[in-house]
Design a protein that fits this description.
By secondary structure, the protein is mainly α. It contains 31 helices and nine strands. Among the domains are: 138 residues, no CATH class; 77 residues, no CATH class. A three-stranded antiparallel β-sheet has the order 1-3-2. Strands 4-5 form a two-stranded antiparallel sheet. A hairpin with a 2-residue loop joins β7 and β8.
């Protein structure tokens, strides 16, 4: 059924085509895909069949040269990938008390409705869930064994705290925010977003307070390569009204986009209110290449602006003559991309049709509810908007992130969807939502500490339960919702079975990128200076050179074996991550976990699963360093984080003993477990 450890001399079967039994099973699954991926059946495992001796003999005879795993990711790291802010362990009693109050509120409502909680997680289930939900990957064999063997009463708290201050946590929550903020390296051809992506990642690592983090994104000034936080505003460059809609949706959980064109048909927002809110940010200036040499921040003097216009003319002439490619023009545009503010009056659209105003009437800024804080009343429009949105008195800001992070941890929001707060769409547990909002405020918007409280609840530490979000019945949180791994969790989990150093490569820091991509313009800047800077950039971070380097140092069968958070985005459609639902980062929260047949085929015979079975992979070396009688336990602990049952052990040992070699048998067992629902779903 499986390719076994396919680095061994053996089968002459091409490595890119699935074995016959896998093909037959894949065809059958064309009909049964929904059942295969059903959360309700995720705890089941198909019975493992015994591979035929004929196939195993063929596998043993194979002398086809194998492709080696990249040395960079197979070398153990000498230390942590990067620094992460430390957890305050003295807060354990306060965390436990806050978690207990959440459990009390949930238990009261469950009791009123006659609902029983699900069984508690055993240690194997806990170590696996904690690593997946806080670190974005399954635990390693050593991590699982150490946790299962530990005797301390506080070992679960110890594990949670270690994960919360690990690079794994940063990577996992970067992926979470990348889906929300639509982080991609080229939102437009002349915007280089790598510094902004690094800024988001470093902000998570530094555990910046959420309100300060958001406020900086909404008010940042300057060029992107010098102040990466301006990336948030540049993400919607040229679309000032969608920018307001997206900002309110992400940070206030309210959908006002319909009011951009007409009064909202399902909510109370009017078109005039939308324009009144947009009037705060109407003065935002974003430089567009080809429309003068002035940067948005207004920091280019007249002489420099004149020189820029002359340089741009020279560049256009050289492009037309074929002496340089169009990338040079985009490179200059990326260096000038920035944000600034100059007050401007917003007018109602030409087709405005309501009685309270006329088309082209000027609009006075006004917030949707409450007031602009007094301390910002005399500030520029963006500052007023950001101060109102992030103010502690604006409970909807805290309420939205409390609900969003609750869903991240528990699998279902108290308001669903998380960006659809409406008066006629109340939360399932109103008192709990207000309590969680208070908790976010008490923690001064420390989201990592908020997550620490949520994962310390008895509710989170119970077995996951199936929830049909389309049923209309409110979820009672008998435990977290049973969910399939996200694309990133699945990729990083398989990578854990392959690489000794999954952090061998990290995306460039903002400073490193600016050093290669940055170009300071002065009245003395010549065309030669510009072209030399462009060549220096294309030789390092230009797309072609960058991809070649990644493949050369970290590539295997066309796959780059590094963490999902460090891979280029968006990835091509055929990539494993895209097959399993990673967003193209064009829409807010565009990631999906729905099942498709290509996903099944990728798990059966994709290059990333072949990498796991190569000689030298983490799991290969771990398994082969143990005698056959212990190898079964090693495989189960490494893949599923628990030891096998008696029947599983008997079936697995039979496979190992009847295979042509123990290595082939172990490879079959690993491959079989990887293709179970138990592996794919977070129990």
């Amino acid at each position: 059924m499986s390719p076994g450890f396919n680095s061994l001399p053996g089968s002459k079967r091409p490595r890119t085509s699935p074995p016959r039994t896998a093909v037959r099973l894949g065809v059958a699954l064309l009909v049964a895909t929904a059942a295969w991926w059903s959360p309700a059946r995720s705890a089941e495992r198909p019975r493992q069949g015994t591979a035929t001796k004929k196939r195993d003999r063929a596998a043993a005879r194979d002398s086809e040269p194998r492709l080696r795993l990249p040395a960079a990711v197979m070398t153990a790291p000498s230390g942590p990938a990067f620094d992460v802010a430390r957890i305050d362990r003295a807060r354990r009693p306060a965390v436990a008390a806050a978690a207990a109050e959440i459990d009390r509120m949930l238990a009261t409502q469950r009791d009123e409705r006659g609902v029983k909680p699900s069984p508690p997680l055993d240690d194997g289930g806990f170590v696996r869930r904690a690593h997946l939900e806080l670190g974005g990957r399954i635990p390693t064999f050593d991590e699982t064994k150490a946790f299962l063997d530990a005797k301390g009463a506080a070992k679960r708290e110890d594990l949670v705290e270690r994960l919360l201050e690990s690079p794994d946590f940063v990577s996992h929550f970067y992926n979470f925010w990348a889906d929300i903020l639509r982080l991609t390296e080229r939102p437009q051809k002349d915007i280089f977003f790598e510094p902004y992506l690094d800024w988001v990642k470093r902000s998570i690592a530094d555990n910046r307070p959420y309100d300060a983090w958001v406020r900086e994104m909404l008010t940042a000034d300057g060029r992107l390569l010098e102040n990466p936080a301006v990336g948030y505003q540049l993400r919607d460059r040229g679309m000032p009204l969608p920018y307001v809609d997206n900002t309110v949706r992400v940070f206030l959980g309210t959908q006002i986009g319909c009011a951009q064109c007409h009064d909202h048909p399902f909510d109370s927002w009017t078109q005039k209110q939308f324009y009144e809110l947009a009037a705060f940010t109407a003065g935002t200036r974003m430089r567009e290449p080809g429309k003068g040499g002035r940067a948005a921040a207004g920091d280019v003097d007249a002489a420099t602006a004149k020189q820029l216009r002359e340089l741009q003319q020279t560049i256009r002439e050289n492009i037309r003559a074929g002496r340089v490619d169009n990338g040079l023009r985009l490179f200059v545009g990326a260096n000038l991309a920035g944000v600034g503010f100059a007050p401007r009056t917003l007018e109602l659209p030409h087709d405005y049709q309501y009685d309270d105003a006329k088309p082209f009437d000027p609009v006075r800024p006004a917030v949707l509810w409450g007031d602009v804080p007094a301390g910002a009343a005399d500030a520029e429009g963006r500052m007023q908007f950001a101060a109102w949105l992030t103010d502690r008195g604006n409970r909807q800001f805290a309420r939205t992130i409390a609900n969003r992070m609750w869903k991240k941890v528990m699998g279902a929001g108290l308001v669903e969807p998380v960006d659809d707060f409406r008066e006629d769409h109340p939360p399932t547990h109103p008192a709990l939502l207000e309590h969680l909002t208070d908790l976010v405020l008490e923690l001064d918007f420390d989201l990592r500490e908020y997550v620490r409280v949520l994962v310390s609840t008895d509710t989170w530490r119970r077995r996951a339960v199936v929830h049909d979000a389309t049923s209309g019945a409110p979820f009672q949180y008998e435990g977290p919702v049973l969910r399939r791994m996200t694309a990133e969790q699945l990729w990083d989990s398989i990578l854990t079975l392959v690489a000794r150093n999954e952090w061998a490569f990290q995306r460039p820091t903002a400073d490193a990128y600016a050093d290669r991509a940055g170009l300071a313009f002065t009245p003395k800047t010549t065309y030669g200076d510009v072209e030399a800077a462009y060549r220096r950039f294309t030789d390092t971070y230009g797309r072609a050179a960058y991809q070649r380097q990644l493949q050369k140092e970290y590539g295997y069968h066309g796959q780059v074996l590094v963490r999902a958070s460090e891979l280029p985005t968006p990835l091509p459609l055929g990539h494993f991550l895209r097959q399993f639902g990673q967003s193209d980062r064009e829409s807010i929260e565009g990631g999906r976990t729905t099942a498709t047949v290509p996903q099944i085929l990728a798990m059966f015979n994709g290059p990333i699963t072949h990498a796991m079975l190569e000689r030298g992979s983490v799991i290969y070396d771990e398994v082969m360093s143990h005698p056959t009688t212990e190898a079964v336990d090693v495989v189960f602990l490494a893949v599923l984080s628990h030891r096998p049952s008696a029947s599983d052990r008997a079936a697995a040992l039979h496979e190992l003993r009847t295979a042509s070699t123990p290595a082939v048998g172990c490879g079959n067992l690993i491959w079989a477990l990887l293709n179970t629902r138990e592996f794919l779903f977070i129990q």
